[in-house]
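Lab notes, practical 5.
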Amino acid sequence: MSLTTDRDKVEASEKPTLYKQIRHDIETLILTGEWPPGHRIPFEHQLMTRYGCSRMTVNKALSELAQADLIERRRRAGTFVRRPQHLSAVLKIADIRAEITALGRSYGYQLVHCTRRAATAADRARLGVRKTGKVVAIACRHSADNVPFAVEDRLIDLEAVPEAATADFAVEPPGSWLLHHVPWTEAEHTISAVVADSRMAAALGIATGAPCLVIDRYTWRSARTLTAVRLLYPGDTHRLVARFGGS
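Output from the prediction step:
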């Protein structure tokens, strides 16, 4: 005698990744600002209808979003976008390709190397994680009107961003790809200056000993490091400008 119910059959017929799609869609709407803090998330039965799935699938997606502190579920009131807890909610991460294009200059991109490998102790230290399986290590150069604009040294944690394993970084710059495909909740910039050694000078087409601007950026989602990147710019051609409002 079978104890399989109609609900069980529905669950079994659903794609195992459907809840991930629901989570991704809602997460994207929140992190892009389309659904601002305090916005009411559609009711479970509305999401069930929209995605053609069971309540269990919707509930799993919402539970993970709640654990990531992106939404809050209020009994009898509904589910709402959570108020931002981090300064990073208003932090803008620039897309170098878009930045150069906005200047009216021709963008160029060269992938120097891209390696998918088991994480080393140095990789884990840089990402700030105790353990991770594999990473993507990328070195590339961005140019404006065929003149070197910046060089990039990046690590992506494949445990946090598994889709990066199949991305074609020979075609799309990693920074642009991440901004368009991977939501983030927190980021940190550290800005410093260095003197170009021979390797840096060759990469940027500048003289050895010339000043360089360095930006080290770490990006997280729910306390998990997604990527660590170091961007190196010629010091005499690049500047950072920030404008703040008074209270």
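Observations recorded by the TA: Strands lie at 71-74, 78-81, 107-118, 134-144, 147-157, 186-195, 211-221, 224-234. Residues 1-14, 85-91 have pLDDT under 50 and may be disordered.
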